[in-house]
Design goal:
This protein is of the alpha/beta class and 345 residues long. The chain folds into two domains: 8-32 and 239-344, Aspartate Aminotransferase, domain 1, CATH 3.90.1150.10; 41-236, 3-Layer(aba) Sandwich (Aspartate Aminotransferase, domain 2). Helices cover 38% and strands 17% of the residues. The chain is built from 13 helices and 15 strands. The protein has a seven-stranded mixed sheet with strand order 2-8-7-6-5-3-4, with helices on both faces. Helix 3 runs parallel beside helix 9 and helix 4 runs parallel beside helix 5 (98-106). The longest helix has 24 residues, at 238-261. The termini are far apart.
């Protein structure tokens, strides 16, 4: 299985720091998620029913009636490759690796794309997969560009899959409210913006024929009854959504400024994380982990993704750890790390 952020227990054992003492910035999940109310007892006692409040809430939130709830967008990521015969699939790197891994596992032919050259390569593809904004680089595509690429693919029976896991708070960039089109598949997640990754709830927005086949493949009860109850309430809470979008934007800007002032200007990001590409990624990751601050380390290219601290104490711990790192090391123009022995004592 692929490595993901959030494996905090492993880090706690490796660095011998109690789990409770960590600042976990590794996941890109809102650390101040939607406040879960008391869950009625019957939610735990009955099987999920598809005519509860969830579908109506999702139709309103995503402004689309052609959608299917799934056990997190990961369920769709693993299942969609089964719905096509072997074909040519374009993907970016770095990006959420489960997409490429799922298509490759089934036997599809993968083609690595340069983000700036997608248009030139599109006629060689049957399926194009994009995360918008991209994880971990934060690159954001305009809807008009995506719809243009979709039209070219759809003309040949191809698909455009857009994973919008980090899109909440930026509805002007989302394709979820677009009229249903053949071959346009949009994935949405409750986990990131709402901070509810544990309920494993996501949605696929697509034409009915794809949703019908996907529904039959996944089977009944993909989301637990308590999960459906919580997701429905969260999707209907417009006041919380509005304030949270503002808070996340402000905190992401604060994180960008903090990294820049520490001599580590990010190379990209979105409202839930900042991404730093540097040859010193491994050293910085280890330095922060020794302080009980967990980031997401990537290779090819060497880089780090920083999620948002939960509270002011977390912000101050990160600021101090970055200050110590800046004192301990000096950087050249490409942030290659070199020991400054005069600071090491």
């Amino acid at each position: 299985m692929l490595e993901h952020g959030g494996r905090l227990r492993q880090a706690a054992k490796r660095y011998a720091i109690p789990l409770i003492d960590w600042v976990d910035l590794s996941t890109g999940i809102n650390p101040n998620g939607w406040p879960i109310p008391s869950i009625p007892a019957q939610c735990w006692q009955r099987l999920p029913e598809d005519d509860d409040e969830l579908m109506a809430a999702a139709h309103t939130y995503y402004q689309n009636n052609s959608l299917l709830p799934v056990a997190g967008s990961q369920a769709a990521i693993q299942s969609l490759p089964l719905l096509r015969p072997a074909c040519r699939v374009g993907f970016l790197h770095p990006a959420y690796a489960e997409h490429a891994a799922s298509w490759q596992k089934i036997g599809h032919q993968l083609q690595l794309l340069n983000a700036e050259k997608i248009s030139n390569e599109l006629d060689k593809l049957d399926v194009l997969i994009l995360i918008n904004p991209n994880n971990p680089t934060g690159k954001l595509w305009q809807p008009a560009q995506l719809l243009e690429w979709h039209a070219r693919l759809s003309h040949r029976g191809g698909w455009l899959i857009v994973d919008e896991a980090f899109m909440d708070g930026m509805p002007e960039y989302s394709l979820s409210a677009q009229p249903v089109r053949p071959g346009l598949i949009v994935l949405r997640s409750i986990g990131k913006f709402f901070g509810l990754a544990g309920i494993r709830c996501g949605f696929v927005i697509a034409e009915h024929s794809i949703l019908r086949i996907l529904n039959e493949f996944l089977g009944p009860w993909t989301i637990s009854n308590p999960g459906r109850y919580v997701a429905a309430k969260a999707l209907l809470d417009k006041a919380w959504q509005h304030q949270t979008a503002l808070n996340l934007t402000q905190n992401s800007q604060r994180l960008q400024q903090l990294l820049t002032e520490s001599g580590l200007p990010p190379d990209g990001g979105c409202s839930l994380f900042q991404w730093l590409k540097t040859d010193a990624a491994g050293q910085l990751h280890d330095h922060l982990a020794q302080q009980g601050i967990y980031t997401r380390l990537f290779h090819e290219p060497d880089s780090l993704r920083f999620g948002l601290p939960k509270d002011e104490a977390g912000w101050q711990r990160l600021k101090e750890a970055l200050r110590q790192f800046k004192r301990r090391y000096s950087f050249d123009g490409e942030l290659a790390c070199t020991e400054n022995t005069s600071q090491l004592g």
